[in-house]
Protein: CbtA family protein
Amino acid sequence: MRTFGSLLVRGLIVGLFAGLLAGTFAYVMGESRIDAAIAIEEANAGAHTHDHGDEHAASEEEPLVSRNGQRAGLFLATGLYGVALGGIFAVGFTLLRRKLRTDNDSYAALGLAAAGFIGIVLVPFLKYPPNPPAVGDPETITRRTVTYLLAIVIGLLAVWAGVALSRWTARYGEVARLAGGVAGLVLTVVAAYLILPRINEVPDTFPATLLWQFRFASLGTQATLWLLLGFGYAATVARRPSEQKVSV
Structure:
């Protein structure tokens, strides 16, 4: 019998490596987009200062952390995030393992990772896609944070609704089971999207190509993290032949 401690340690280790590799993806695919967005923000600020003759605005305070420091901190942040997510994933795997209808621990881990990605990442992304640092009103950050967290809760509820309806329709066959799961997920998400407020603070002058390049880099970072976490954890919990029950 594998203990909870061993499962937790596996989750923490896998999460660390997944976080570092996701940070590498974010560095390669996202940092140049962030630099471009910051350059646009600085150019707009300089034009505003020139038009209004504001000498005080011209001497803006330097950021607390330089861009080089932010780039180095990226790997620390994604590594710590990966460790935390790996620990939570291990706890969820331990609590839900017996409720997952499969005898294969690896398949259970992959299914749990897929459900987590859909509920925690994909559903909120489709409603509130992330914006570069230069986009957004600082005065609405609290409202945007609350609505995004609410979208995560709704995403998890949508996954639960899909699983519940899938199991209820399983009596009618595999096709009905699949259709029921998709319907439960989609209907919950659509209803929530209609209720949640619409937030769009992207200026019309901001380049659309740069905006979506940043957003897809952000989604790719999360996809890399969850993909590596799912497959990595599935590999660590795969039972060896010596662990299988053998009847004599």
Q: What stands out?
A: Confidence is low (pLDDT under 50) at residues 55-60. Residues 4-52 form the longest helix (49 residues).
